[in-house]
Amino acid sequence: MKRIFVTVGTTKFPKLVNAITTEQVIQTLLSLGYNFVQIQTGRDFSKVEFDSVVSPPPEIKLEANSTIVTVNDKLTIKYDTYFENFEKEVEESDLVISHAGAGSCLEVLHKRKPLIVVINEDLMDNHQSELAEQLQKDGYVYCSTCSTLKEVLKKDLSKLRPYPKPDDSLFPRYLDKCMGFT
């Protein structure tokens, strides 16, 4: 199973959630061989919307805390508000599509998963775009907006650079130097 995990973090980003369900993005996902999309919708997400041109209409099932949508018997999209184990969702995915929050981006990069960062253009100062654009400039992620997601999904994920592992000795060495121990 080829799997995508989509996360919007703790805030609302319905444009990203709904961008996944446009006919163009669904066709792109199918052409790339994806057959399961797990979407963390964030708080106050009320309605699963699909392009009116998705044909045949998707099958929608409601479970305890999830909405499961099947498109053409080929693509399953599961919506949940939050996940207890974000790390597990990332590890089980072949690709992560995330809002541009630093916490989500860095957690995915530390797991060495391909990452598409979608900038929320509706944020007042669009502060998340700086991090996303720098990570793209450094070759670690691809940046997108909701309107360019279809094109960005087609990019070669193997060209992304692995994010460097942290040097756990760096801070203790710095602290030792500041304290005069070295």
TrEMBL record:
Cellular component GO terms, alphabetical: endoplasmic reticulum
Top-level taxon in the UniProt lineage: Eukaryota
Keywords: Endoplasmic reticulum, Glycosyltransferase, Transferase
Compartments it resides in: Endoplasmic reticulum
Enzyme class: transferase
Stretches assigned to the Glycosyl transferase family 28 C-terminal domain: 4-160
Gene3D superfamilies noted in UniProt: Glycogen Phosphorylase B (3.40.50.2000)
UniProt record, GO biological process: dolichol-linked oligosaccharide biosynthetic process
Family: Belongs to the glycosyltransferase 28 family.
Protein name from the UniProt record: UDP-N-acetylglucosamine transferase subunit ALG13
Species: Exocentrus adspersus
